[in-house]
Specification:
It is a single chain. The chain is mainly α. It has eleven helices and no strands. It has two domains: 100 residues, RNA polymerase sigma factor, region 2, helix turn helix motif (Rna Polymerase Sigma Factor, Chain: A, Orthogonal Bundle); 88 residues, Winged helix-like DNA-binding domain superfamily/Winged helix DNA-binding domain (Arc Repressor Mutant, subunit A). The relative contact order is 0.11.
């Protein structure tokens, strides 16, 4: 992953060295969220920093554009900051945050505010094997292929296959049964196999 998403818009004070920050770093996610609800001015910043990179990875693979991904994460963290009181402990804080960022991504896709902007690169197999830049180009091809499958399938594939979330947790994030997650992954993988078939042919 290249870069860390910007944190502008997340209402948190500057971090500073010291015992207070060190203490917050030792707290569990639920404890940090409780401290935030109780008025601790630094607790949410610690919680956001702990999960920001993983949330950005989900958004990046779902939306396909680093700037859109950063915007979606920013929106999600602001929403989580303001809606902390809605967390009931029925899932982990990671799952709760994942649900918020996934919903932010889906909203962007459905409102057609995201467009495929990554061009298909030249596909030179020999270059890809020896040139790191060509490997990056291949990853961009995969990212664009993800952008071409239905968003429900895309999110399931990103969470399960790209980010490695357990199916049960993805089901909690998406609010659907585990069987639905498996079905969406299977259909998404089938579509990707067709879209990326040229890569296998070139490797052979």
């Amino acid at each position: 992953m290249s870069g860390v998403p910007p944190s502008e818009g997340v209402e948190r004070p500057p971090r500073h060295a010291g015992a207070r920050v060190g203490f917050l770093d030792t707290l569990a996610d639920t404890e940090l969220l409780a401290a935030h609800r109780a008025g601790d001015p630094e607790a949410f910043g610690t919680l956001a920093g702990r999960h920001e990179r993983a949330l950005w990875a989900i958004a990046l693979h779902t939306l396909g554009d680093p700037h859109d991904a950063a915007d979606a994460v920013q929106e999600a963290l602001v929403a989580a900051y303001r809606r902390a009181a809605t967390f009931r402990g029925e899932s982990s804080v990671r799952t709760w945050l994942g649900r918020i960022v996934v919903n932010a991504c889906i909203d962007r896709v459905r409102h057609e505010r995201v467009r495929a902007t990554v061009p298909w690169p030249e596909r030179d197999v020999a270059a890809r094997r020896s040139d790191p830049a060509a490997e990056v180009a291949t990853r961009l091809v995969v990212r664009e292929a993800l952008a071409l499958i239905p968003v429900e399938q895309r999110v399931a594939v990103v969470l399960v296959d790209v980010e490695g979330y357990p199916v049960t947790e993805v089901a909690a994030i998406l609010g659907v049964p585990s069987g639905t997650v498996k079905s969406r992954c299977a259909r998404g993988r089938a579509r990707l196999a067709v879209l990326l078939g040229h890569l296998r042919e070139e490797e052979r």
